[in-house]
Amino acid sequence: MKTLLILRHAKSSWKQTDLPDHDRPLKKRGERAAPRMGELLVKEELVPQLIISSTAKRALKTTALVAEACQYDGEVQPEHGLYGAGPMGYIRILQEVPDVYQRIMVVGHNPGLEVLLEVLTGEAVWLPTGALAHVELPIDTWAEIREYVGGRLVDLWEPEKLPPTSG
């Protein structure tokens, strides 16, 4: 059994209209929401062993804030191929992950993440910005991950629906 955490980047800013989409930063709201998801990972005992992130500025910033909040001590693997990827883009990258990792988090974008979640679990759910899905996969090796693998959506959290933090 492997665990996949699917995190959509936090709320991004559209203020600088001259920026390419890849370079859009997070809004203040996104900068507040991302650490809350990191705190949730600690609370749920789901700190990832490996984080793979899109190279888009908003995804990398989300990743950095989440990683700091959950005290992730590994390296972040940036993957340009996740920017704009469909579900097979994520699956192909995951198939190459060494099997020493049991729990991986991918950080990316819609609509690719929503479709990935649907093809892995059979459940069509909305992933708003900053949302985190916890998926259990009935596989022993990452090479076995594929569409319609029969995964189970264990939980789905949205930053705005989390209880307030004490900090």
Written description of the protein model:
The chain has helices spanning 28-43, 57-69, 87-95, 112-121; strands spanning 2-8, 50-54, 76-79, 103-108, 132-137, 152-157. The protein contains four helices and six strands; from the N terminus they run βαβαβαβαββ. Strands 3-2-4-1-5-6 form a six-stranded mixed β-sheet, with helices on both faces. The chain starts with a strand and ends in a 10-residue tail after the last strand. The protein is α/β, with parallel strands linked by helices. Strand 2 (50-54), helix 2 and strand 3 form a beta-alpha-beta unit. Helix 3 packs across helix 4. Helix content is 29%, strand content 20%. It has one domain: 3-Layer(aba) Sandwich (Rossmann fold).
